[in-house]
Amino acid sequence: MAPWALLRPGVLVRTGHTVLTWGITLVLFLHDTALRQWEEQGELLMPLTFLLLVLGSLLLYLAVSLMDPGYVNVLPQPQQPLRARHCRECRRCVRRYDHHCPWMENCVGERNHPLFVAYLALQLVVLLWGLYLAWSGLRFFRPWGLWLRSSGLLFATFLLLSLFSLVASLLLASHLYLVASNATTWEFISSHRIAYLRQRPGNPFDRGLTRNLAHFFCGWPSGSWETLWAEDEEGSSQDV
């Protein structure tokens, strides 16, 4: 492997995420937080659980960022599949394209979208727990210069976790809404630009909350998007 291959954006982003994850975890253990107090009291269940959750969120992140999001080779076909879109960053066509995630340097599509939602949920749990732990270690006192030297890093970690928690909460809420209605981020934002959505009002892929969730997480009921679209078109014509 050429040396410059190690400097690709994907490698840098994933390395940065991994370093930041374990760096924040180390800060929470080194300061006088609830984690350290549990450890000193011999109560290891909670610290070990927190570490396992951190590790699980990191593994899910790497899985989503490294796996095939649903690339499709459109060369033998006259047109690309329904709900697919060509990603400029990846330079590939992705089935049920949702968006390109710069934090993962990968597309979110048909294959990795369920894992992406699971990652957001687990990451939010870790972030909120970490936020509580950081707050538990903060002791405000004067002079402020002395406090800043002793607790400045932990306070910066608290602010960073607050920001990440807000972002993760908004992302998880928006994706759960989209999953419940069987829509994608791309379709929600650009419905006026997508031909198969301009042809009729509403979402032609929405089959109700239960069936939408079952299809998204379990792949049931199975069937192509073209079939669902045709069924919706047939139902619309019968109503007319």
From TrEMBL:
Q: Under which EC number(s) is this enzyme classified? A: 2.3.1.225
* Top-level taxon in the UniProt lineage: Eukaryota
Q: Which residues cross the membrane?
A: 12-32, 44-64, 116-141, 153-178
Q: InterPro entries given for it?
A: Palmitoyltrfase_DHHC (IPR001594), PFA4/ZDH16/20/ERF2-like (IPR039859)
Q: Which residues form a coiled coil?
A: none
Q: What is its main location?
A: membrane
The protein's matches in PROSITE patterns, at most eight in alphabetical order, are given as:
DHHC (PS50216)
Task: Work out whether the entry's keyword set contains Repeat.
Answer: no
Key words of the record:
Acyltransferase, Lipoprotein, Membrane, Palmitate, Transferase, Transmembrane, Transmembrane helix
Q: How does the protein associate with the membrane?
A: Multi-pass membrane protein
So what does this thing catalyse?
L-cysteinyl-[protein] + hexadecanoyl-CoA = S-hexadecanoyl-L-cysteinyl-[protein] + CoA
UniProt subcellular location: Endomembrane system
The entry sums up its family as follows: Belongs to the DHHC palmitoyltransferase family.
Record text about domains:
The DHHC domain is required for palmitoyltransferase activity.
PANTHER family, sorted: PALMITOYLTRANSFERASE ZDHHC12, ZINC FINGER DHHC DOMAIN CONTAINING PROTEIN
> What protein does this entry describe?
Palmitoyltransferase
